[in-house]
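STRUCTURE REQUEST FORM
Protein name: DUF2384 domain-containing protein
Source organism: Pseudomonas jessenii
Requested output: structure tokens
Priority: standard
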Amino acid sequence: MEEVTMPSVKVPRLTGVKRAEGRPVDLLVNGRNIGDDAFLIVDLTDEGFELNDVVNMLSTSELYLQGDMVKRITGKSVSTVRRLLKEGKTVRLDPQQSVVAYQYALVLEKATRAFGRQSRAEEWLRKPSTYLNGRVPVEFIRHSLGFQMVEQYLGQLIYGVYT
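Status: completed
Returned output:
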């Protein structure tokens, strides 16, 4: 019996975006010094992050440039993001989308710190985690409680504190 190979499905990606240099959170907040000021983060997310800043944050990660991730983080399809960027108008994410974008940026930074390299962090983010009862971290981040669990676990890895 002859084996039939199925054509591979092309995953949409946000292409044509220049890779931005810097930490994801810094790019997202457009270089503002936010430190650990939770009130400032709340204010910034209420205002809504500019789509250009979100795209700069996304551009730091091969994982985050994938179509499903673009939609998960921005709430917009790859084609919509491309069109909005091309139009050149200032577009802001709504507060909820901004919170999600912040969560993804922060987790990418913490995972990179915990695993030593961004490539290792992205690999961990894609795979089911026993700490998360077999859930995939990158899929769990968009939920506020899932984000807290992922962030707590990464903190434990960084500081070597396990409960």
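Reviewer notes: The chain is about 55% helix and 0% strand. Residues 133 and 149 are 11 Å apart (CA to CA).
Form closed.
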